[in-house]
Amino acid sequence: MEYLDICDENGQPTGQCVSRSEAHRQGILHRTAHVWIVRKENGQTEVLLQKRSMQKESFPGLYDTSSAGHIPAGEEPLPSALRELEEELGLSAAPDQLAYAGTFRIQYEKVFHGQVFRDNEVTRVYVYREPVDAQKLTLQAEEVDAVRWFDLEEVWQEIQTDRRRFCVPASGLSLLRDYLKAHPLPDSE
Questions:
Q1: Alpha carbon separation from 5 to 31, 32, 69, 109 (Å, rounded)
Q2: Are 85 and 50 spatial neighbours (Cβ–Cβ below 8 Å)?
Q3: Quick one: CA dihedral 149, 154, 155, 161, positive or negative?
Q4: CB count, 10 Å around CB of 105?
Q5: Can you say whether residue 33 is alpha, beta or left, with left for phi > 0 and alpha for psi between -120 and 50 degrees?
Q6: Is 9 helix (H, G, I), strand (E, B) or coil?
Q7: How far is the C-alpha of 91 from the C-alpha of 65, rounded, in Å?
Q8: 59-118: per-residue pLDDT in tens?
Q9: Of all helices (H) and strands (E), which one includes residue 120?
Q10: Does the reported pTM lie above 0.90?
């Protein structure tokens, strides 16, 4: 069973833990780490998104953040982000290859697979700017069905009005856009 630190509004652990299933059943505040993989291709900023497995407990079959996961109890955000990259995509990264972009909140209640799912998270966001060949990634079958590069601004525009393809959190994508304005990607070679 996976245990998570219950945290305060700033993402600081309170010293109490809860099982992942209980956190989502009751909507208890906990921590997650997201990694956005980005590149510049033909003058456009692109983001690698993962298509969630149909077995996922939330948003099955939709495109989501490059890599994301819960931060286990007692673990820090950066090691958790690195572990998720390795587990979900088979991508081994060094700590200095993940740039911290900020923190945001996720909070919603929806029904998936006939069950109420309550999400209440403080999310640490990291950006990975190294070259990635999506065809050479090793995808974690139970988590990820596929990965695909998308134009960042097209995703941003689409999620404003249509959520049939993407479940990327708008606040997380906004943080990424702000980060890239301050730290632009070099043109591809």
A1: 7, 10, 13, 20
A2: no
A3: negative
A4: 13
A5: beta
A6: coil
A7: 15
A8: 999 999 999 999 999 999 999 999 999 999 999 999 999 999 999 999 999 999 899 999
A9: strand 115-128
A10: yes
